[in-house]
Amino acid sequence: MNTDKKQNTEEVKLMKGNEAIAHAAIRCGCDGYFGYPITPQSEIMETLMDLEPWNTTGMVVLQAESETASINMVYGAAGCGKKSMTSSSSPGVSLMQEGISYMVGAELPCVIVNVMRGGPGLGTIQPSQADYFQTVKGGGHGDYKLITLAPASVQEMADHTVMAFDYAFKYRTPVMILADGIIGQMMEKVVLPPYTPRWTEDEIRKNTPWATLGKTKDRKPNVINSLRLQASDMEELNLLLQSRYREIEKKEVLFEEFDCEDADYIIVAFGISARICQKAVEIARQKGIKAGMLRPITLYPFPTEALKKYAEKVKGMLSVEMSAGQMVEDVRLAVNGKVPVEFYGRMGGIVPSPEEVVDALESKLVK
Amino acid sequence: MNITDIINPANLVMQKTKVMNDAPMHYCPGCSHGVVHKIIGEIIEEMDIQDKTIGIAPVGCAVFAYQYLDIDWQQAAHGRAPALATAVKRLLPDRYVFTYQGDGDLAAIGTAETIHAANRGENITIIFINNGIYGMTGGQMAPTTLEGMKSSTSPSGRDIPRNGYPLNITNLLAQLEGTCYVTRQSVHTVASVRKCKKAIQKGFENSMQNKGTSVIEIVSTCSSGWKLNPVESNKWMVENMFPAYPMGDLKNI
Q: What residues of B are in contact with residue A214 (Cβ under 8 Å)?
């Protein structure tokens, strides 16, 4: 959450989180963006259309007829070894679940941004974090996991875009950036990533030898496919995916701690909730409550081990989310009954105040 | 004379296209898919574009197209082939990109993707196999099933008040500004196979001339779904399918 980290040497810009994603995508060598308008994330495609990257880096930007088409365009692009992405908000991401599952099955890398709004249904355009289950527990059909990054600042919107492409190609998987309406809409200082050229076709052939660029004489046809009709073939793919997930869980967990060292109580929060809870920790400390906060940066893989370690020394944990309580289940699984784990959250697009969080901490845990 | 004397390179008058491999086909006897696959393979070989062609396979009987033609393939979710093809062609504009789709895939679940890809004038070739039935899942009613035609989900025949009208999506696609070539063909006679091959080749050539989308509908048989033998199927197709889906170019610019 340290938004000042790079700002001494680089040019600092002021922009919305959504805009930062668009700039970062162009700069990190993204080949194609395919999207459909939906509040509160439309600035991503609007910014891309305004910047006209097809004239500079050659990046393709296309407004599709639906989120269904968008994610399938991403599939087509990714199948050619291209760095491709889409973005949407909750109802649109629901529509994309078919395509995401197919991309997992076909082992295709891509980046999907979900700037969450309240639901279920058409819901509200106000910010929410209620798509945690959808993102972290599956979403589409079949056994799979999505590496999920939860940015908490405009700087992280830019940084995570770059990281997400790295993860996607390292593990041949779709990666989700799970933001919310506030992070998408608010303006903050940001240092954008440096320009990295898009891969040439030679680089694509080298980096993604499975890509469908046209069958050359020196190799067999490349087929991008998620169909495995034989049960044994299907299980083979399932086992491969699961082994990748175990590796991801071992190597890629990211989280940030704030005043946890001597804490009696740990608040667990991600995204915009973590920004609020950071203030809540300060207020609690002024009141003499030794509170700390652990902010998962990757929601999958989840910082299970870190929470397990703290469960040995704290008196309780409070999961604070803008939902009815979803991540709290993963906190409880990590803590495994060692200490009480309570939940505080608001729904419908209502953002909890730091004072509300401190009250919840006091009434549910400190007592 | 020994059989090996007859099968002798010196006696060779015709050869299967090298783009088509020797994998045993899963298609039923009398099915049109095998012939269409073969002519696509021939075109790719004759145009020498094996290294420049990317096919997008559908969900349906042709889901396995990638097993038979030795080119790079992407297998799409049901109905989404034109969306995949859009992105592939836009990112690789010097490649030949075609979709191969059945009537359920193209004209029911994928209607939006089909119409919008064609309306954007994507420089792709859409090969549309219309046999008026869902073959892969066992002969259910398709958007193109004829009035009165029996299927497993219209056992007493397609009833218009209940099921609506057969969808003539190719006529619809011909109306769009984005299409440059829309034609309806078949592969039930030697002459029709030759004509169909020319049409598909034209579609491939169009895709490199920035003219827009080419749509080649191939009115086809489904012996298993229609519960007719291959000869009867061809006859039934000519008598019943052709009046509803007449042969010929709908648009050629």
A: 50-54, 71-72, 92, 95
> Looking at the predicted structure, is the pLDDT value of residue B1 above 80?
no
Partners of residue B134 on adjacent β-strands: B140
Fold identical between A13-201 and A255-366? Answer: yes
Q: What is the CATH number of domain B26-252?
A: 3.40.50.970
> What is the tens place of the pLDDT at every residue in B96-145?
999 999 999 999 999 999 999 999 999 999 999 999 999 999 999 999 99
- Bond before A120 cis per omega within 30 degrees: yes
Eight-class DSSP state of B20: B
Q: Which letter does DSSP use for residue A353 in this model?
A: P
Q: Do A69 and B80 touch (CB under 8 A)?
A: yes
| Spans of all domains in chain B | 26-252
Whether A62 sits inside 8 A of B87 (CB atoms) is yes
CA distance A42 to B3: 70
Name chain B contacts of A57, Cβ cutoff 8 Å: none
Choosing among 1.10.287.70, 3.40.50.150, 3.30.70.100, 3.40.50.970, the CATH entry for A13-201 is 3.40.50.970
> DSSP E strands: which ranges in A77-184?
84-88, 110-116, 147-149, 174-180
CA distance A284 to A265: 10
Chain B positions touching A77 (Cβ under 8 A) are 87-88, 91
- Per the CB < 8 Å rule, is A65 touching B95? no
ipTM above 0.90, yes or no: yes
Within 8 A of B92 by CB-CB distance, chain A residues are 80, 213-214
Quote the CA–CA distance of B6 and B25 in Å, as a whole number: 26
Q: Which of B70, B90, B92 sits opposite A62 (nearest CB)?
A: B90
Q: Is A112:A44 a contact under the CB 8 Å cutoff?
A: no
Q: What is the pLDDT of residues A80-125, one digit of tens each?
A: 999 999 999 999 999 999 999 999 999 999 999 999 999 999 999 9
Size of interface A-B (CB pairs under 8 A): 125
Task: Indicate the residue type of B86.
Answer: T
d(CA B101, CA B218): 10
Instruction: Identify residue A163 by its one-letter amino acid code.
Output: M
Chain A residue with CA closest to B20: the answer is: A221
pTM: 0.96
Using a CB–CB cutoff of 8 Å, tell me whether B208 touches chain A. no
For residue B10, the model assigns a pLDDT of 84
B19 close to A (CB below 8 A): no
Q: CA B183, CA B246: separation in Å to the nearest integer?
A: 10
Answer whether CATH 3.40.50.920 is correct for domain A255-366. Answer: yes
Q: Where are the domains of chain A?
A: 13-201, 255-366
